[in-house]
């Protein structure tokens, strides 16, 4: 596969992976559950916040790599509604880390023509965080490259509740109380409206669950789980996930041509 100069392989292993990737069969939307920051820190006898700080470096690498591979959409699970149960000191650090990231990385996001989106319930975030997020989204709104959706104060069930309530509100306002709801109506009222459903869901740290993430959208996503903890997830490992994706036989409940014939 031809890659931009900025993504030229840094070692032989990475070069081999790049050669094997079919650039015409890349996912349209990659979703990532970035898991394992705490365990990464614990293994090194460091505080959990050190793992979160290291995880930001991995996020930067994956965002830039996906943008330069011309992946249309990337969604990162950054902070779930359940994460509010963590110690206040850790939550405060995560909020500061997010604000620092937005201020520091906005020039990089702009340079890569990335449009930033926030999915979840950002209105419940601290005011300073919310202001920084809204400012970053406004400044990237006209960018035409990859759409980067960051899930903040996000929950998959909450997303469905909010979608159904929006549909009910629309029905009341239009007087169409008996209108039928189909899949398209629901999709148009999700936080991810306008984005393709994820083709590939990557989860780091080896946990075999989806953690209330994009419950509607990942119905037919290919799921790739790696034991690698998020701070150790590199560009080469993203390439490995893409290669694994390209080996999948995506049938969406049907059969491929080679399996159409049924022996009588």
Q: Can you tell me about this structure?
A:
There is one protein chain. By secondary structure, the protein is of the alpha/beta class. It has a domain at 26-155 and 197-247: Decaprenyl diphosphate synthase-like (Undecaprenyl pyrophosphate synthetase, 3-Layer(aba) Sandwich), CATH 3.40.1180. 43% of the residues lie in helices and 13% in strands. The protein has eight helices and six strands, in the order H-E-H-H-E-H-E-H-E-H-H-E-E-H. A six-stranded parallel β-sheet has the order 3-4-2-1-5-6, sandwiched between helices. Strand 3 (115-120), helix 5 and strand 4 form a beta-alpha-beta unit. The longest helix is centred in the middle third of the chain and has 24 residues, at 88-111. It is globular and about 65 Å long. The mean pLDDT is 92.
What layout of secondary structure does this protein have?
Elements (H helix, E strand, L loop, with lengths): L11 H9 L8 E5 L3 H7 L4 H21 L4 E8 L7 H24 L3 E6 L6 H14 L6 E8 L1 H19 L8 H6 L11 E4 L18 E4 L9 H13 L17
Helix pairs in contact: 1-8, 2-3, 3-4, 4-5
List the helices and strands in order: HEHHEHEHEHHEEH
**Number of helices, where a helix is a run of at least 4 consecutive DSSP H or I residues:** 8
**Basic shape:** globular
* Percent range for β-strand residues: 5-15%
Largest beta sheet, briefly?
6 strands, parallel
Which architecture of the domain at 26-155 and 197-247 per CATH? 3-Layer(aba) Sandwich
Oligomer: single chain
Gap between N and C termini? 43 Å
Number of strands: 6
Mean pLDDT across residues: 92
Radius of gyration, CA atoms, in whole angstroms: 20 Å
């Amino acid at each position: 596969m031809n890659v931009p100069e900025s993504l030229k392989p840094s070692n032989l292993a990475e070069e081999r992976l790049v050669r094997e990737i079919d650039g015409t069969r890349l996912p349209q939307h990659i979703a990532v559950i970035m898991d394992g920051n705490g365990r990464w820190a614990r293994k090194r006898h460091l505080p959990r916040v050190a793992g979160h700080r290291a995880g930001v470096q991995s996020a930067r690498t994956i965002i830039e790599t996906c943008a330069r591979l011309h992946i249309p959409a990337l969604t990162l699970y950054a902070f779930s509604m359940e994460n509010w149960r963590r110690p206040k000191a850790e939550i405060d650090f995560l909020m500061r880390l997010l604000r620092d990231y937005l201020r520091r990385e906005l020039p990089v996001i702009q340079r890569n023509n990335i449009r930033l989106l926030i999915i979840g319930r950002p209105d419940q975030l601290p005011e300073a965080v919310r202001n920084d997020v809204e400012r970053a989204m406004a400044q990237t709104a006209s960018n035409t490259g990859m759409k980067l959706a960051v899930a903040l104060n996000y929950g998959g069930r909450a997303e469905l509740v909010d979608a159904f309530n929006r549909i009910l509100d629309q029905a009341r306002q239009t007087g169409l109380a008996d209108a039928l709801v189909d899949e398209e109506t629901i999709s148009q009222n999700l936080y991810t409206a306008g984005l393709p459903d994820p083709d590939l869901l990557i989860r780091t740290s080896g946990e075999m669950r989806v953690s209330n993430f994009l419950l509607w959208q990942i119905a037919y996503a290919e799921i790739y789980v790696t034991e690698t903890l998020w701070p150790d997830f590199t560009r080469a490992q993203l390439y490995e996930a893409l290669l694994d994706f390209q080996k999948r036989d995506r049938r969406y409940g049907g059969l491929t041509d080679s399996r159409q014939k049924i022996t009588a």
